[in-house]
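Input structure tokens:
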């Protein structure tokens, strides 16, 4: 099968991921595959890739600590494929006015590949570090227990990070809510 030619944005993302691996912001896995299904990256007038917004996300994740398994207690370093196919396109592809082009994300990853943990970190980033005043982030699922698989780790990762613990607090009496305290 002939591989389609990589777009300029795809090449820029690949170069950025390689640089971030070298800097220690991203963990190399050596996986050279591609997702089974993926949407084409946006193209058009004024569409470009910016590294800085992606680096903000990567540095934010490093403030978080892994909570379970063999990585427990270590800084949360995203894997190369997570950045290449999820984080970089969503946060780095911008329009002529500098706004994110990708506004809705749907990803399917097999069991035991960290979906809930990634979602927990992204929820925290979007909630408190994305520079959007009054941001609201929801964990929605088939039932409350399933939604808790994302909310509880997000709450626990925030509590385990001294920088985030100062800025976030649980709403008293509401165990399923976090509140961003901007003045702290």
């Amino acid at each position: 099968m002939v591989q389609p030619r990589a777009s300029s944005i795809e090449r820029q993302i690949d170069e950025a991921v390689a640089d971030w691996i070298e800097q220690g912001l991203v963990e190399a896995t050596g996986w050279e595959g591609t997702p089974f299904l993926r949407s084409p990256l946006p193209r058009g007038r004024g569409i470009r890739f910016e590294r800085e917004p992606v680096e903000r996300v990567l540095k934010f994740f490093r403030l978080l600590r892994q909570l379970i398994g063999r990585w427990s207690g270590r800084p949360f370093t995203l894997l190369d494929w997570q950045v290449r196919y999820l984080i970089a396109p969503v946060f780095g592809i911008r329009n002529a006015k500098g706004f994110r082009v990708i506004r809705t994300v749907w990803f399917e990853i097999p069991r035991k590949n960290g979906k809930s943990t990634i979602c927990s970190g992204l929820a925290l980033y979007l909630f408190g570090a994305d520079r959007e005043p009054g941001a609201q982030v929801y964990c929605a699922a088939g039932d409350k227990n399933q939604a808790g698989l994302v909310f509880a780790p997000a709450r626990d990762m925030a509590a385990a990070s001294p920088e985030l613990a100062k800025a976030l607090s649980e709403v008293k009496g509401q165990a399923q809510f976090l509140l961003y305290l901007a003045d702290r």
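Strands lie at 26-27, 48-49, 78-79, 93-94, 168-170, 178-180. The chain has a mean pLDDT of 84.
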